[in-house]
Amino acid sequence: MSSEKPSPAADLLEHEYDGIKEYDNPMPRWWVGAFWASFVFSIGYVGYYLAGHGQSVEESFREDERIAREERARSSLEEAPSEAVLSKLMADDAMMQDAKLLFGERCAVCHGAEGQGLIGPNLTDNSWIHGKGQLMDIFGVVSDGVTTKGMPAWELTLKPIEIRKLVAFVGTLRGKALPGKAPEGQPVAAVP
Ligand code: HEC
């Protein structure tokens, strides 16, 4: 709906369809305004992304995933540690990837990048110095450490959720039997 008056007959366009003629009216001003506004906006918008601001679809997806993972981690802390709670973390692939990085930073110096053992024992065999390789046994030794033998008490330095993730990660190493340090402690039945 345009408020503009029809132009004089001189502005009639040449073509004619079945007797219908058309005036050469200018585009409504609101339309032209909206066109230029969206044009200028699109340049700014593209420039903003090209300059490296803003999140790509992939980045925002990863961010959402990270938040969801932290949410799961927080809710898992509401329950006291147990075989069931810890084995649930073992099944969480994304969380185990975080844990592998953490293992690389904190544990690999003594236990090797793959847990195959260096100064500290091989964590991938089915022999254990402390306990029988149950998740709660691992939880105990990781939390309290064996300070007289050089294994730090990690509850002093790591957050509770980090300890749980690492314990679950060590759980995933059990029985991989990677070549490395010879088994120490007592052999136990393989954990399913
Ligand atoms: C400074 C070296 C060192 C670091 C770092 C270290 N450990 Fe240990 N860890 C040891 C030693 C040494 C032992 C063996 C203790 C013993 O002989 O009683 C051990 C034992 C263990 C055991 C028990 C193994 C068994 O056979 O009973 C587990 C599980 C373990 N460490 C996990 C971890 C995790 C997880 C981390 C990282 C958060 C870690 N360790 C970091 C030195 C280390």
Outline the structure in words.
It is built from 7 helices and 4 strands. It is mainly α and 192 residues long. It folds into 2 domains: 9-50, no CATH class; 81-187, Cytochrome c-like domain (Cytochrome Bc1 Complex, Chain D, domain 2). It has a two-stranded antiparallel sheet. Strands 3-4 form a two-stranded antiparallel sheet. 18% of the residues are buried. The mean pLDDT is 91. The site of heme C has 24 residues, from α5, α6 and α7.
Give the topology, please.
Elements (H helix, E strand, L loop, with lengths): L11 E6 L2 E4 L5 H22 L6 H20 L6 H8 L2 H14 L1 H4 L15 E2 L6 H10 L15 H14 L12 E2 L5
Q: What is the fold-level CATH name, i.e. the topology of the largest domain? A: Cytochrome Bc1 Complex, Chain D, domain 2
Identify every distinct bound molecule in the structure, by name, code or SMILES: heme C
The total strand number stands at 4
The average pLDDT is 91
Please identify the top-level CATH class of the largest domain: Mainly Alpha
CATH superfamily of the largest domain: Cytochrome c-like domain
Proportion in helices: 40-55%
SSE-based structural type: mainly alpha
Number of domains: 2
